[in-house]
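USER:
I wish I could look at a protein chain and see how it folds. I am handing you a single protein, as its sequence and its fold in token form. As I understand it, each token names a local backbone shape. I hope you can help me see how the letters and the tokens relate. The protein I mean follows directly.
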Amino acid sequence: MESELYKKLCSILNELYEKTNLKRIKFTDADIILTYMWAVIHDRPVNWACQKKNWPLYYRRKQLPDPSTMSRRIRRDDVQKLLCRIEMLLKNIKQRSVCRWIDAKGLLISNCSSDKQAGYGYAGGGMGKGYKLYAIADKNQGFVQWMVRPMHHNEGTVARELIRKLEPEGYLVGDSAYDKNVLYDIAASKSVKLIAPKKISKAKELGHRRHSIYRMENLERINSKFYQSLIDGRSHIERMFGHLTNFCCGLTPLPGWVRSLFRVTNWVRAKLILYQIWRIFISPEVV
């Protein structure tokens, strides 16, 4: 499985990357990404991938960057943009769905960790320390918009940024955490119809303050068969999170060397790329 994923990634990079003729560059951006991805595929730190003994014999002919080069180059904008281009290419292989789902998944770390950028928040039925993956998922295209933030960030607040980046039109389904006036207005500005169950509160009525007309429309139709069918289909994003964490080379609990927001985001991006390759080319019948 690891070899299949890596070979497919190599072919994708060959399509996307334009080789440079600059003599001073010893390792291309593609070399940096392939070395990093080799570490991610095997759930090992980057310095492990910089040693030839950890590669198959047929890959040992090429030179490998040292850990300091990897640490410096992986943060450069051109490398990050190339990773984003890989994501975009994989996303656009299939046509988008009319309905998409929004949710979040906790990425827990040890409470003893000294990571100052991690936060405490609600995750998986209790409180925990770490980060959270906030995502919008499409049945055909996978995770189309996502970001990683410390655990304590509110799902509704992060959803504002995600929805603003979403393509126009269609339906977006979330749970009651997304039943917020501002989210309905932002979604409507993108011609997207947000659907979410009413947020449970002690008050029986909505109160006297102004509410979004799009929220009021949602609450009026929430019990219709069509809206209920869309809400029932939201469980698909939970299955996608399950596939993401359970397939070979998937997003397992964050290892000890993946700390700070940048490293966690980079690790999650690499895992999402591998997940897309797996679901499109290797096991398309599973998803």
